Amino acid sequence: MVRISKFLSLVLRHQPEAVGLALDSGGWVEVDRLIAACAAKGRRFSRADLDHVVASNNKKRFAYSEDGLRIRASQGHSVAVELGLPATVPPDVLYHGTASVTLPLILREGLKPMSRQDVHLSADVATAGRVGARHGRPVVLAVDAAGLAASGHEFRVSANGVWLTDRVPPQWLREVPRA
Asked: Strand ranges (DSSP E) for 50-92?
């Protein structure tokens, strides 16, 4: 299931063309077409396998359409999609986890989406710490989301609770002391 999940992340977030698919403008693809296209490239799985991956993924990376006929990644796309998420008032503080090696650059230039469409923020320190640990010694940054929103920045929240914004200038960031 982990291999299927990682492959789905590749296809539904970054390279749908790897299996000969194109995502619609909202990032959706028909489930039957996805299964068939993956099978044609030697990555076989059933609808039941897909259901299990969607339901059990601890980060809730994937979502079905209301009718269950389409699937998409909840966020994290490097291909152009419009998730259709409404602007939402954020909590006062959000968090971003990163590796300590990137801290000097971030404190100079702020948070940028890099290869993704949006900067990803967490609602809690623990989640941000886990994200930061993926790339080395983790550092957690607190984002003054209320101040940033008041200055005109828009926030959206994905189906799996990840907060999204276009960028975070450095003046809205502070390092959270390690516990």
From this structure: 62-64, 70-73
Q: Write down how long the chain is.
A: 179
Question: Two tokens at 98?
Answer: 């990163």
Task: Judge residue 62's burial from the number of C-beta atoms within 10 Å of its C-beta, 0-12 exposed, 13-18 middle, 19 or more buried.
Answer: buried
Q: Do domains 2-73 and 93-175 have the same CATH topology?
A: no
Helix residue spans in 18-124 (DSSP H): 31-40, 47-56, 103-109
At the second CATH level, the architecture of 2-73 is Orthogonal Bundle (1.10)
60 token code pair: 């809730």
- The answer to whether the predicted template modeling score (pTM) of the entire model surpasses 0.85 is no
Q: Which residues contact 89 (CB under 8 A, 6 or more apart)?
A: 149, 155
Phi, psi of 46, rounded to the nearest 5 degrees: -95, 170
For residue 7, give the amino acid letter.
F
What is the fold, at CATH topology level, of the domain defined by 93-175? Answer: ADP-ribosylation fold (3.20.170)
Q: Which stretches of the chain drop beneath a pLDDT of 70?
A: 179
Q: Would you kindly state where each structural domain of the chain is located, as residue ranges?
A: 2-73, 93-175
Q: What is the pLDDT of residue 179?
A: 64
CA 151 to chain centre: 24
